[in-house]
Amino acid sequence: SRKFDHKQLPMKNRSVGEIDVSETVHDLHDQNQSQEPTQRERPDEVPQRLYNAAIRYLGAREHTVTELRQKIARKFGCEFSDSEVDALLAELQAQGLQSDARYADVAVRSRVARGYGPYYIEQSLRAKGVAAEIVHETESWQSADWLQLALLVKERKFPLVTGETRYEDPKAWQKAVRSLQQKGFSSAIVARVIGA
Fold it and tell me: Which long-range contacts (CB under 8 A, 24 or more apart) does 17-25 make?
């Protein structure tokens, strides 16, 4: 299947030229780091090996708190206590090195660029440990136009399907409906896009 044309992405209050799908979590992480003081002090209650491992993970890409906990558990097992891991995560957040909100903002933008709707995005980020409230507060979520996005996806994948198709070719109509729902669009939006 051909790639989703991100240049057509509907984002409220933003021109098409402002939408940069190539911007990754890495980009925002780098921007954040450039604003950080060059010297960071590790608190005494955070072991050096634990801190170094977390910095390596975050240097590769942004991680949610849940992801970091899982990776630390896989790497170190029970070597470090819960309080030490909690202190580490608190320190990383205080230094601006870890942020679930930042992760969510870029993840929403990325998934919108790939034509995914709100339900899919919420579920995929919930699996990463990001609460729906955090997702809904991101700029990417608030600027997304879900109806227009669903229309673009429908026109790209099912340009000939309309409300009349439901009676003329029920299988084609049902396939289009299922596809949009699997992409994470609500039944109400699908009905408006295809016709019920």
Answer: 19/109, 19/113, 21/109, 21/110, 21/113, 23/106, 23/109, 24/61, 24/106, 24/110, 25/61, 25/62, 25/102, 25/103, 25/106, 25/107
